[in-house]
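Listing S7. Sequence submitted for prediction.
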Amino acid sequence: MNYIKNQEWRYATKKFNPDKKVSENNLNLIKRTVQLSVSSYGLQLYKILIIEDINIRKQLQPASWNQSQITDASHLIVFCNYTKGIPQAIDKHIELTAKTRGVDIEKLDGYRDFMKMKIAKKSQNDQFNWTKNQTYIALTNLLAVCASLKIDACPMEGFEAEQYNEILGLTEKGLNASILATIGYRSNEDETQYLEKVRKPLELLFEHI
């Protein structure tokens, strides 16, 4: 029931209090929760940038439709999906798996080859969309843990990815800005917090077969 209450409490915060910051302890809890997110094959084909530098955020704000959350929130989180280097990422994942579980890496060769074979069958566009979709799963965990900590958050698709990629130098790193989230604490002036949450009724959203 606490989980439901937390979800009822949260909303996409439109105006943050720039004077209130997320503590290092809470930020570490958020990072650990996102780290534990599920991902396809467990590969986590994304990187997550946590941007505190106000000067960088001011550069990014025009590419974010000039939304105030970018500069007023405590932290700007940029989820970046891989655009290249997937075979190498699989090799690193296999190495980490062998080390973590204490098994001979040769025993994982079959699984390594299976992953590479299945992913190679995808077109470049399908691979891009596949890795991008993984970031939304991680984002969901971020929103959930923030709600449990009573930290406000706003997921944001309203930005120009190409400009983010250029400003942050992502393209040459094989990354793409996929989805954003700002975290911090709501301003008393944010009228959105007082609005009723609008969701489809259960009987329209779910169908039992």
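Caption to Listing S7: primary sequence and predicted structure tokens for the chain studied. The chain has one domain: 2-205. The domain at 2-205 is CATH 3.40.109.10 (NADH Oxidase).
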